[in-house]
Amino acid sequence: MWWNSGPHLRRRMLVEAGLSDSYRTSQSFFSRCSAVDEFKDVLQSKFGTLSRAWRVLDIDGSGRMDMREFCQALTRLGYVGNIRTLWHLLDSTNAGSISLDELDPRAAAALEKFRVVSLQHHESIEHMWKVVMDIERTNAVSLKVFIQGCKALGYEDELEVEELFHQLLLKSGSQHLALEDMQFLQSWEETKRRKLLRRRLGVRWVNRDPFLTSQVLDPSRSSNTTEYSEQVSMDMEKEVQHFREYLSQTFGSLPQAFEEMDANRSGELSLVEFEGVVANLLRYCRHGEARRLFRALIGTEGSGKLTWQELGISKVEWTAYRMQKSMEARRQQTEAILNARAPLGASPRMRHAENHHIERIREKKSAGKFVFNSPLPPGWGPPPEFVPLEPPANRSRRRDMPKPPRSPNSR
Predict the structure, then answer these.
(1) pTM of the prediction?
(2) So what's the pLDDT on residue 320?
(3) Do 311 and 262 meet the contact criterion of CB atoms below 8 Å apart?
(4) Contact 252, 324 (CB under 8 A)
(5) Which keywords belong to this entry (predicted)?
(6) What whole-number distance in Å separates Cα of residue 299 and Cα of residue 379?
(7) CATH architecture, domain 1-103
(8) Which CATH architecture has domain 104-198?
(9) What does the pLDDT look like over 34-92, one tens digit per residue?
(10) Domain 236-315 indexed as CATH 3.50.50.60
(11) SS3 string of the chain?
Protein backbone atom coordinates (compact mmCIF):
# COMPACT_ATOMS: atom_id res chain seq x y z
CA MET A 1 0.00 0.00 0.00
CA TRP A 2 1.03 3.63 -0.37
CA TRP A 3 1.84 4.03 3.33
CA ASN A 4 4.15 1.03 3.47
CA SER A 5 7.87 1.25 4.00
CA GLY A 6 10.65 2.31 1.70
CA PRO A 7 14.18 3.68 2.02
CA HIS A 8 12.98 7.27 1.71
CA LEU A 9 10.42 6.78 4.49
CA ARG A 10 13.01 5.17 6.76
CA ARG A 11 15.43 8.07 6.28
CA ARG A 12 12.69 10.61 6.93
CA MET A 13 11.59 8.76 10.08
CA LEU A 14 15.14 8.80 11.42
CA VAL A 15 15.38 12.52 10.78
CA GLU A 16 11.96 13.33 12.28
CA ALA A 17 12.69 11.16 15.33
CA GLY A 18 15.92 13.04 16.00
CA LEU A 19 18.08 9.94 15.52
CA SER A 20 19.93 11.10 12.40
CA ASP A 21 22.83 13.48 11.87
CA SER A 22 20.75 15.45 9.36
CA TYR A 23 19.18 18.69 10.47
CA ARG A 24 15.42 18.61 11.08
CA THR A 25 13.34 21.56 9.88
CA SER A 26 10.68 22.58 12.37
CA GLN A 27 7.11 22.98 11.07
CA SER A 28 5.71 25.06 13.95
CA PHE A 29 6.57 27.64 16.56
CA PHE A 30 7.92 24.91 18.86
CA SER A 31 11.40 23.93 17.72
CA ARG A 32 11.85 20.42 19.02
CA CYS A 33 14.27 17.74 17.93
CA SER A 34 11.46 15.21 17.38
CA ALA A 35 8.30 15.52 15.29
CA VAL A 36 6.30 13.66 17.93
CA ASP A 37 7.33 16.02 20.74
CA GLU A 38 6.58 19.01 18.54
CA PHE A 39 3.16 17.56 17.66
CA LYS A 40 2.40 17.09 21.37
CA ASP A 41 3.36 20.70 22.11
CA VAL A 42 1.03 21.89 19.35
CA LEU A 43 -1.86 19.86 20.80
CA GLN A 44 -1.23 21.08 24.35
CA SER A 45 -1.09 24.70 23.27
CA LYS A 46 -4.35 24.35 21.34
CA PHE A 47 -6.42 22.12 23.66
CA GLY A 48 -4.74 22.37 27.06
CA THR A 49 -4.21 18.64 27.62
CA LEU A 50 -3.38 15.74 25.34
CA SER A 51 -6.37 13.75 26.54
CA ARG A 52 -8.72 16.58 25.59
CA ALA A 53 -7.00 16.88 22.22
CA TRP A 54 -7.39 13.15 21.61
CA ARG A 55 -11.11 13.26 22.34
CA VAL A 56 -11.52 16.11 19.86
CA LEU A 57 -9.53 14.33 17.15
CA ASP A 58 -11.21 10.96 17.71
CA ILE A 59 -14.61 11.83 16.25
CA ASP A 60 -16.23 8.39 16.48
CA GLY A 61 -15.08 8.01 20.11
CA SER A 62 -13.83 4.46 19.60
CA GLY A 63 -10.56 5.12 21.42
CA ARG A 64 -8.45 4.18 18.39
CA MET A 65 -7.62 5.85 15.08
CA ASP A 66 -6.41 4.23 11.90
CA MET A 67 -4.39 5.90 9.15
CA ARG A 68 -7.46 7.29 7.38
CA GLU A 69 -8.97 8.84 10.53
CA PHE A 70 -5.59 10.21 11.55
CA CYS A 71 -5.08 11.97 8.20
CA GLN A 72 -8.57 13.47 8.28
CA ALA A 73 -8.12 14.67 11.88
CA LEU A 74 -4.79 16.36 11.17
CA THR A 75 -6.19 17.94 8.01
CA ARG A 76 -9.01 19.49 10.04
CA LEU A 77 -6.45 20.57 12.63
CA GLY A 78 -4.35 22.32 9.97
CA TYR A 79 -1.19 20.31 10.48
CA VAL A 80 1.42 21.19 7.83
CA GLY A 81 4.06 18.54 8.59
CA ASN A 82 4.55 15.15 7.00
CA ILE A 83 1.54 13.16 8.18
CA ARG A 84 2.76 9.78 6.98
CA THR A 85 6.06 10.07 8.82
CA LEU A 86 4.32 11.24 11.98
CA TRP A 87 1.93 8.30 11.75
CA HIS A 88 4.72 5.73 11.61
CA LEU A 89 6.52 7.45 14.47
CA LEU A 90 3.41 7.26 16.65
CA ASP A 91 2.49 3.72 15.56
CA SER A 92 5.74 2.31 16.94
CA THR A 93 4.38 -1.25 17.16
CA ASN A 94 3.11 -1.20 13.57
CA ALA A 95 -0.35 -2.23 14.80
CA GLY A 96 -2.28 -0.27 12.19
CA SER A 97 -3.97 2.00 14.74
CA ILE A 98 -3.01 4.35 17.55
CA SER A 99 -4.62 5.30 20.85
CA LEU A 100 -4.18 7.87 23.58
CA ASP A 101 -1.40 5.69 25.01
CA GLU A 102 0.89 6.79 22.15
CA LEU A 103 0.36 10.47 23.03
CA ASP A 104 -0.03 10.47 26.81
CA PRO A 105 0.53 7.10 28.52
CA ARG A 106 -0.16 8.45 32.00
CA ALA A 107 -3.52 9.94 31.05
CA ALA A 108 -4.44 6.78 29.11
CA ALA A 109 -3.65 4.61 32.14
CA ALA A 110 -5.75 6.82 34.43
CA LEU A 111 -8.75 6.83 32.09
CA GLU A 112 -8.54 3.07 31.44
CA LYS A 113 -8.44 2.39 35.17
CA PHE A 114 -11.48 4.59 35.75
CA ARG A 115 -13.33 2.78 32.94
CA VAL A 116 -12.63 -0.67 34.37
CA VAL A 117 -13.38 0.30 37.97
CA SER A 118 -16.63 2.03 36.97
CA LEU A 119 -17.94 -0.86 34.88
CA GLN A 120 -16.99 -3.64 37.27
CA HIS A 121 -20.08 -3.08 39.41
CA HIS A 122 -22.27 -1.05 37.07
CA GLU A 123 -23.81 -1.99 33.74
CA SER A 124 -22.81 1.23 31.99
CA ILE A 125 -21.12 4.58 32.53
CA GLU A 126 -24.50 6.27 32.61
CA HIS A 127 -25.71 3.95 35.35
CA MET A 128 -22.55 4.61 37.39
CA TRP A 129 -23.03 8.34 36.89
CA LYS A 130 -26.59 8.29 38.21
CA VAL A 131 -25.91 5.96 41.14
CA VAL A 132 -22.50 7.16 42.36
CA MET A 133 -21.68 10.61 41.01
CA ASP A 134 -24.78 12.66 40.16
CA ILE A 135 -26.94 11.79 43.13
CA GLU A 136 -28.71 15.17 43.13
CA ARG A 137 -29.50 14.87 39.36
CA THR A 138 -27.95 18.23 38.45
CA ASN A 139 -25.66 16.85 35.71
CA ALA A 140 -22.87 18.96 37.19
CA VAL A 141 -20.40 17.33 39.57
CA SER A 142 -17.75 19.37 41.32
CA LEU A 143 -14.32 18.13 42.34
CA LYS A 144 -15.42 17.54 45.94
CA VAL A 145 -18.38 15.39 44.91
CA PHE A 146 -16.23 13.58 42.35
CA ILE A 147 -13.68 12.67 45.03
CA GLN A 148 -16.45 11.23 47.21
CA GLY A 149 -17.81 9.21 44.29
CA CYS A 150 -14.37 7.86 43.42
CA LYS A 151 -13.85 6.79 47.02
CA ALA A 152 -17.10 4.84 46.74
CA LEU A 153 -15.67 3.14 43.64
CA GLY A 154 -12.50 2.15 45.50
CA TYR A 155 -10.05 5.02 44.92
CA GLU A 156 -7.87 6.01 47.88
CA ASP A 157 -5.40 8.59 46.52
CA GLU A 158 -7.00 12.04 46.31
CA LEU A 159 -4.19 13.39 44.13
CA GLU A 160 -4.86 10.65 41.60
CA VAL A 161 -8.58 11.47 41.66
CA GLU A 162 -7.92 15.19 41.22
CA GLU A 163 -5.69 14.52 38.21
CA LEU A 164 -8.37 12.23 36.79
CA PHE A 165 -10.97 14.98 37.25
CA HIS A 166 -8.98 17.39 35.06
CA GLN A 167 -8.34 14.65 32.49
CA LEU A 168 -12.09 14.06 32.14
CA LEU A 169 -13.00 17.73 31.66
CA LEU A 170 -13.79 18.36 28.01
CA LYS A 171 -14.31 22.12 28.23
CA SER A 172 -11.23 24.09 29.13
CA GLY A 173 -11.71 26.16 32.30
CA SER A 174 -14.81 24.28 33.45
CA GLN A 175 -15.12 23.37 37.14
CA HIS A 176 -17.88 20.76 36.86
CA LEU A 177 -18.14 17.39 35.18
CA ALA A 178 -21.16 16.37 33.14
CA LEU A 179 -22.32 13.00 31.86
CA GLU A 180 -21.23 13.99 28.35
CA ASP A 181 -17.64 14.24 29.63
CA MET A 182 -17.64 10.51 30.49
CA GLN A 183 -19.65 8.97 27.66
CA PHE A 184 -16.51 8.36 25.60
CA LEU A 185 -15.47 5.70 28.12
CA GLN A 186 -18.56 3.69 27.20
CA SER A 187 -17.50 3.83 23.54
CA TRP A 188 -14.04 2.62 24.55
CA GLU A 189 -15.63 -0.29 26.38
CA GLU A 190 -17.77 -1.27 23.39
CA THR A 191 -14.73 -1.12 21.10
CA LYS A 192 -12.78 -3.44 23.39
CA ARG A 193 -15.71 -5.85 23.54
CA ARG A 194 -15.90 -6.02 19.75
CA LYS A 195 -12.15 -6.59 19.65
CA LEU A 196 -12.54 -9.40 22.17
CA LEU A 197 -15.17 -11.05 19.98
CA ARG A 198 -12.97 -10.72 16.89
CA ARG A 199 -10.21 -12.61 18.67
CA ARG A 200 -12.25 -15.77 18.24
CA LEU A 201 -11.63 -15.57 14.50
CA GLY A 202 -8.44 -16.70 12.87
CA VAL A 203 -5.82 -14.16 11.89
CA ARG A 204 -5.01 -14.12 8.19
CA TRP A 205 -2.61 -12.11 6.08
CA VAL A 206 -1.96 -8.61 7.40
CA ASN A 207 -0.40 -5.82 5.35
CA ARG A 208 2.52 -4.97 7.64
CA ASP A 209 6.24 -4.51 7.26
CA PRO A 210 8.03 -6.16 10.21
CA PHE A 211 11.30 -4.39 9.36
CA LEU A 212 9.91 -0.86 9.33
CA THR A 213 9.96 0.27 12.95
CA SER A 214 12.77 -1.93 14.26
CA GLN A 215 15.39 0.55 13.00
CA VAL A 216 13.56 3.70 14.03
CA LEU A 217 11.93 2.88 17.36
CA ASP A 218 13.29 5.04 20.16
CA PRO A 219 13.51 3.14 23.49
CA SER A 220 12.97 6.35 25.42
CA ARG A 221 9.48 6.66 23.94
CA SER A 222 8.34 3.18 24.95
CA SER A 223 5.34 3.61 27.24
CA ASN A 224 4.57 1.41 30.19
CA THR A 225 1.77 -0.95 29.32
CA THR A 226 -1.08 -0.43 31.75
CA GLU A 227 -2.84 -3.32 33.38
CA TYR A 228 -6.27 -1.90 32.55
CA SER A 229 -5.92 -1.19 28.81
CA GLU A 230 -6.79 -4.76 27.72
CA GLN A 231 -9.38 -5.47 30.40
CA VAL A 232 -13.05 -5.65 29.46
CA SER A 233 -15.74 -5.46 32.10
CA MET A 234 -17.92 -8.35 30.96
CA ASP A 235 -21.25 -9.28 32.48
CA MET A 236 -20.68 -12.98 33.18
CA GLU A 237 -24.38 -13.63 33.69
CA LYS A 238 -25.09 -12.47 30.14
CA GLU A 239 -22.12 -14.46 28.85
CA VAL A 240 -23.41 -17.61 30.55
CA GLN A 241 -26.90 -17.02 29.16
CA HIS A 242 -25.49 -16.49 25.67
CA PHE A 243 -23.47 -19.70 25.98
CA ARG A 244 -26.56 -21.68 26.99
CA GLU A 245 -28.49 -20.28 24.03
CA TYR A 246 -25.61 -21.24 21.74
CA LEU A 247 -25.64 -24.83 23.06
CA SER A 248 -29.41 -25.05 22.61
CA GLN A 249 -29.20 -23.84 19.00
CA THR A 250 -26.24 -26.09 18.16
CA PHE A 251 -27.38 -29.36 19.76
CA GLY A 252 -31.13 -28.85 19.98
CA SER A 253 -31.35 -28.80 23.78
CA LEU A 254 -29.14 -28.37 26.83
CA PRO A 255 -29.41 -32.03 27.91
CA GLN A 256 -28.33 -33.16 24.46
CA ALA A 257 -25.44 -30.67 24.55
CA PHE A 258 -24.24 -31.88 27.94
CA GLU A 259 -24.34 -35.53 26.86
CA GLU A 260 -22.38 -34.72 23.69
CA MET A 261 -19.80 -32.79 25.70
CA ASP A 262 -19.47 -35.56 28.28
CA ALA A 263 -17.51 -37.98 26.10
CA ASN A 264 -16.59 -40.43 28.90
CA ARG A 265 -20.19 -40.52 30.22
CA SER A 266 -19.07 -39.71 33.77
CA GLY A 267 -21.90 -37.25 34.40
CA GLU A 268 -19.55 -34.32 35.01
CA LEU A 269 -17.02 -32.21 33.12
CA SER A 270 -13.62 -31.19 34.39
CA LEU A 271 -11.94 -27.92 33.44
CA VAL A 272 -9.70 -29.69 30.93
CA GLU A 273 -12.67 -31.45 29.26
CA PHE A 274 -14.77 -28.29 29.16
CA GLU A 275 -11.93 -26.17 27.80
CA GLY A 276 -11.10 -28.74 25.13
CA VAL A 277 -14.67 -29.04 23.89
CA VAL A 278 -15.58 -25.34 23.99
CA ALA A 279 -12.30 -23.91 22.65
CA ASN A 280 -11.09 -26.70 20.33
CA LEU A 281 -14.12 -28.62 19.06
CA LEU A 282 -16.86 -25.99 19.13
CA ARG A 283 -14.48 -23.03 18.61
CA TYR A 284 -16.84 -20.91 20.65
CA CYS A 285 -14.11 -18.87 22.34
CA ARG A 286 -10.46 -18.94 23.30
CA HIS A 287 -9.00 -21.01 26.11
CA GLY A 288 -8.80 -18.14 28.59
CA GLU A 289 -12.44 -17.20 28.00
CA ALA A 290 -13.44 -20.86 28.32
CA ARG A 291 -11.78 -21.02 31.75
CA ARG A 292 -13.62 -17.89 32.90
CA LEU A 293 -16.87 -19.32 31.57
CA PHE A 294 -16.25 -22.58 33.42
CA ARG A 295 -15.64 -20.75 36.72
CA ALA A 296 -18.78 -18.67 36.18
CA LEU A 297 -20.86 -21.83 35.62
CA ILE A 298 -19.65 -23.79 38.66
CA GLY A 299 -19.64 -20.77 40.99
CA THR A 300 -17.38 -20.08 43.94
CA GLU A 301 -18.69 -22.95 46.03
CA GLY A 302 -18.49 -25.56 43.28
CA SER A 303 -16.65 -28.86 43.49
CA GLY A 304 -14.44 -28.12 40.49
CA LYS A 305 -16.62 -30.26 38.20
CA LEU A 306 -19.41 -29.07 35.93
CA THR A 307 -22.61 -31.11 36.25
CA TRP A 308 -25.86 -30.88 34.32
CA GLN A 309 -27.50 -28.93 37.16
CA GLU A 310 -24.80 -26.23 37.00
CA LEU A 311 -25.22 -25.98 33.23
CA GLY A 312 -28.79 -24.79 33.83
CA ILE A 313 -30.72 -28.03 33.24
CA SER A 314 -33.63 -28.65 35.59
CA LYS A 315 -34.34 -32.05 37.08
CA VAL A 316 -37.56 -32.39 35.07
CA GLU A 317 -35.77 -31.65 31.77
CA TRP A 318 -32.97 -34.10 32.54
CA THR A 319 -35.39 -36.87 33.58
CA ALA A 320 -37.54 -36.37 30.47
CA TYR A 321 -34.47 -36.43 28.26
CA ARG A 322 -33.10 -39.62 29.84
CA MET A 323 -36.50 -41.33 29.50
CA GLN A 324 -36.71 -40.33 25.85
CA LYS A 325 -33.21 -41.66 25.20
CA SER A 326 -34.07 -44.92 26.97
CA MET A 327 -37.28 -45.36 24.96
CA GLU A 328 -35.42 -44.64 21.72
CA ALA A 329 -32.75 -47.19 22.59
CA ARG A 330 -35.43 -49.83 23.36
CA ARG A 331 -37.20 -49.09 20.09
CA GLN A 332 -34.01 -49.49 18.11
CA GLN A 333 -33.20 -52.72 19.95
CA THR A 334 -36.69 -54.14 19.30
CA GLU A 335 -36.50 -53.15 15.63
CA ALA A 336 -33.10 -54.81 15.30
CA ILE A 337 -34.46 -58.04 16.79
CA LEU A 338 -37.47 -58.03 14.45
CA ASN A 339 -35.28 -57.37 11.41
CA ALA A 340 -33.02 -60.26 12.37
CA ARG A 341 -35.83 -62.79 12.99
CA ALA A 342 -38.11 -61.87 10.07
CA PRO A 343 -37.78 -63.81 6.80
CA LEU A 344 -36.29 -62.23 3.69
CA GLY A 345 -38.45 -59.37 2.45
CA ALA A 346 -40.76 -59.35 5.50
CA SER A 347 -38.71 -57.31 7.99
CA PRO A 348 -40.07 -53.92 9.10
CA ARG A 349 -37.09 -52.19 7.57
CA MET A 350 -37.54 -53.76 4.13
CA ARG A 351 -41.30 -53.16 4.20
CA HIS A 352 -40.76 -49.51 5.01
CA ALA A 353 -38.26 -49.18 2.14
CA GLU A 354 -40.67 -50.91 -0.26
CA ASN A 355 -43.59 -48.67 0.71
CA HIS A 356 -41.44 -45.58 0.35
CA HIS A 357 -40.31 -46.71 -3.10
CA ILE A 358 -43.90 -47.28 -4.23
CA GLU A 359 -44.94 -43.85 -2.99
CA ARG A 360 -42.14 -42.20 -4.97
CA ILE A 361 -43.17 -44.08 -8.13
CA ARG A 362 -46.83 -43.06 -7.77
CA GLU A 363 -45.96 -39.46 -6.95
CA LYS A 364 -46.98 -37.05 -9.68
CA LYS A 365 -43.98 -35.17 -10.91
CA SER A 366 -44.23 -31.66 -12.23
CA ALA A 367 -43.46 -30.95 -15.85
CA GLY A 368 -39.77 -30.51 -16.44
CA LYS A 369 -36.57 -32.36 -17.04
CA PHE A 370 -35.52 -35.01 -14.54
CA VAL A 371 -32.19 -36.74 -14.11
CA PHE A 372 -31.87 -39.62 -11.66
CA ASN A 373 -35.38 -38.85 -10.39
CA SER A 374 -34.37 -35.28 -9.49
CA PRO A 375 -35.51 -32.12 -11.30
CA LEU A 376 -32.88 -30.16 -13.16
CA PRO A 377 -32.38 -26.47 -12.37
CA PRO A 378 -33.73 -23.96 -14.91
CA GLY A 379 -31.51 -23.70 -17.95
CA TRP A 380 -29.83 -27.05 -17.40
CA GLY A 381 -29.98 -29.98 -19.82
CA PRO A 382 -28.61 -31.17 -23.18
CA PRO A 383 -28.18 -28.71 -26.08
CA PRO A 384 -31.01 -28.45 -28.66
CA GLU A 385 -29.01 -30.16 -31.43
CA PHE A 386 -27.63 -32.90 -29.17
CA VAL A 387 -28.02 -36.44 -30.59
CA PRO A 388 -26.49 -39.10 -28.34
CA LEU A 389 -26.03 -41.67 -31.17
CA GLU A 390 -24.09 -39.36 -33.49
CA PRO A 391 -20.32 -39.10 -33.11
CA PRO A 392 -19.00 -35.66 -32.16
CA ALA A 393 -17.44 -35.09 -35.62
CA ASN A 394 -20.83 -35.33 -37.43
CA ARG A 395 -22.65 -32.84 -35.23
CA SER A 396 -23.31 -29.43 -36.70
CA ARG A 397 -23.31 -26.85 -33.91
CA ARG A 398 -24.01 -23.88 -36.20
CA ARG A 399 -26.56 -25.42 -38.51
CA ASP A 400 -29.08 -22.58 -38.36
CA MET A 401 -26.62 -19.69 -38.48
CA PRO A 402 -26.60 -17.72 -41.80
CA LYS A 403 -23.41 -17.66 -43.78
CA PRO A 404 -21.59 -14.30 -44.10
CA PRO A 405 -22.04 -12.53 -47.51
CA ARG A 406 -19.16 -12.76 -49.94
CA SER A 407 -17.41 -9.56 -51.00
CA PRO A 408 -17.65 -8.56 -54.76
CA ASN A 409 -13.86 -8.60 -55.15
CA SER A 410 -13.50 -12.18 -53.92
CA ARG A 411 -13.23 -14.87 -56.58
Answers:
(1) 0.57
(2) 92
(3) no
(4) no
(5) Calcium
(6) 60
(7) Orthogonal Bundle (1.10)
(8) Orthogonal Bundle (1.10)
(9) 788 888 888 888 888 899 999 988 888 888 898 899 999 998 888 888 888 888 888 87
(10) no
(11) CCCCCCHHHHHHHHHHCCCCCCCCCCCCCCCCCCHHHHHHHHHHHHHCCHHHHHHHHCCCCCCCECHHHHHHHHHHHCCCCCHHHHHHHHCCCCCCCECHHHHCHHHHHHHHHHHHHHHHCCCCHHHHHHHHHCCCCCCCECHHHHHHHHHHHCCCCHHHHHHHHHHHCCCCCCCCECHHHCHHHHHHHHHHHHHHHHCCCCCCCCCCCCCCHHHCCCHHHCCCCCCCCCCCCCCHHHHHHHHHHHHHHHHCCHHHHHHHHCCCCCCCECHHHHHHHHHHHCCCCCHHHHHHHHHHHHCCCCCCCECCCCCCCCHHHHHHHHHHHHHHHHHHHHHHHHHHHCCCCCCHHHHHHHHHHHHHHHCCCCCCCEECCEECCCCCCCCCCCCCCCCHHHCCCCCCCCCCCCCCCCC
Residue spans of the domains in the chain: they are 1-103, 104-198, 236-315
CB-side neighbour CA atoms (13 Å) of 367: 0
Q: What percent of the chain has pLDDT over 90?
A: 13
Identity of the amino acid at 403: K
Helix axes 143-153, 158-168, angle to 10 degrees: 120
